[in-house]
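Reading a protein record of the kind used here takes only a little practice. The integers have meaning only within a learned vocabulary of local backbone shapes. With that in mind, consider the following protein and its fold in token form:
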Amino acid sequence: MLRIKELRDGLTQEIINEKFSWINDIVANDVILGIEGDDIVWYDGIFENGTWHRGIWKNGTWKKGTWKWGTWENGTWKGGRWINGEWFNGVWENGTWKKGYWKNGVWKNGKWQIGRWVDGTWINGIWEAGVWENGTW
């Protein structure tokens, strides 16, 4: 069940139902959502489980589920599957990274299958394939 704490930027439940109906199927608590252009914006909250289809993640905690596409700006990833997208900052604690672009942040553990690592700190985990440009290993 999606438990919304606050809607911002003119986002309404009607807009969610019309443009972002998939978000009604996730399990999450204390969620603060907004809208930017054609994207839903996750300002804060705890994502317990479900599938993220597209949008901008500003901050919050991701516990488990599947990330299909979008932009991650900051927050904590505790587990789940990352299918594709752009990661700009935050802490990855565990999970499987399938494909995408990592700009900065801290990788604590998990499996990196393929993607482009531009910068950040790698502490532990399994690196299978991809492009490493810069960072601390």
